[in-house]
Amino acid sequence: xxxxxxxxxxxxxxxxxxxxxxxxxxxxxxxxxxxxxxxxxxxxxxxxxxxxxxxxxxxxxxxxxxxxxxxxxxxxxxxxxxxxxxxxxxxxxxxxxxxxxxxxxxxxxxxxxxxxxxxxxxxxxxxxxxxxxxxxxxxxxxxxxxxxxxxxxxxxxxxxxxxxxxxxxxxxxxxxxxxxxxxxxxxxxxxxxxxxxxxxxxxxxxxxxxxxxxxxxxxxxxxxxxxxxxxxxxxxxxxxxxxxxxxxxxxxxxxxxxxxxxxxxxxxxxxxxxxxxxxxxxxxxxxxxxxxxxxxxxxxxxxxxxxxxxxxxxxxxxxxxxxxxxxxxxxxxxxxxxxxxxxxxxxxxxxxxxxxxxxxxxxxxxxxxxxxxxxxxxxxxxxxxxxxxxxxxxxxxxxxxxxxxxxxxxxxxxxxxxxxxxxxxxxxxxxxxxxxxxxxxxxxxxxxxxxxxxxxxxxxxxxxxxxxxxxxxxxxxxxxxxxxxxxxxxxxxxxxxxxxxxxxxxxxxxxxxxxxxxxxxxxxxxxxxxxxxxxxxxxxxxxxxxxxxxxxxxxxxxxxxxxxxxxxxxxxxxxxxxxxxxxxxxxxxxxxxxxxxxxxxxxxxxxxxxxxxxxxxxxxxxxxxxx
Length: 627
Hints:
With 627 residues, this protein is α+β, with helices and mostly antiparallel strands.
């Protein structure tokens, strides 16, 4: 080759390199050793993405996604990410209507910022090919209210420690309403506590109700949505008084200190006669001097109103709906309870739809001859049981071996579970249907996601006694499915029961065969052993409170158990848990509900001799009609 030809080729190569895009020559993504995805690829991705991965952006700047907080396939990804050396929170909108959903999120965050409400600061928003990205400040050492409250779920309703965790959330909601804003997806996962500061999350759910504080109807509706997230025994006005007191503080205060400092209602677990006189009253020490004790709050109500400014008294009168506190007392109580019931019913309906389909909380597997649903966070740990449930029945510890059902206790070998649970949610994660706030755990031994301890579980196989029995069950939902739905209904309502973890059914087209149900192991003592077969003593204060709370919640929810033997109730550190939910029914008609409850009540009383102290106490204390 001549020198002239060589120089000509060098000039051609230099010219080609000169016209290459700059980001192709110096693109930082080319130097990464992690998978690189664009929005189109993420839109088609399954739930289990390989972490970490890099997101392809228009300017070539790498965004490394390190921890997935929430992934709605084809819709949205919320994750902890790294931009350069900085940790950020990334919210990526993909799929149809991504621009509109991103716009709503930005608009909601802007409303919070303009109103002076604490929310993580937005760093940048940018349009991508097939998606929109919002980066905001990552709040370190923070936990959601749901995460803080979850270890306290087994405490009695109104427990001071639980109140101290929940009160800042109600106080912050009051502040939102004061600013004329509502939160349409208000739940404890959308409030993030860092030190003494509570942040509001999910701008997409923020709405402006008007330039002034929200009106009575909107306030009650939104407050009912938040109250519906709690177990039903928190509906008692005496129990909920401290939380409503905190809401009132947030509503009346121009600036809200969200530090969980005790209020007069939180210092001790004192029963307040009613919360209504205190909902929209300024703290008494602000107008009258020293704070009165909770026990004297009711008798000082009338005199305290004299010290309220005229403007505030008019505001309060408009909210209560009468010329005096007494005029609106019963009406507000009824309206708030009605709003709570409506919100809880909507939440329950939405959740019961999810227990049968593949979603964030549940994993569904349909294969020839078998159908299974499992809580997603337990899917990996329970995979061996789902693959061959009969083998696990054979190796388990026999608890019951009957013709209609076989029940065994099994123990999973130590193995890491899915990281989709609480340990993987440092903040910003807000599962809208996560029922764990309402559902107290029934077992202290079942390992949580991310753990590696042995897990005692209960595996129940529903047998077919004969060919005729199999034919009669073939076209009906299995008893396992019935118990699966009943268990999750109770779980969402906050009524203690072992959490149903998975269900397996033999299916051939529309025909059903045998079925298996996996639940938590229920710790505690059977009620018949706790009180004794003779019922020689009446319940003490804690036992009476637990019995009253359980049956009051069941009656209000129109639920009957169907087999209230004392063997089917467990005493657990101040609470009662229900098991064996095969015959449980939720009634839509009042007449059927009343008839079934009378049968339940009579069956429960028959557990002890008719003239025993326990029987006499129960006969007096148990409700006779629907509450």
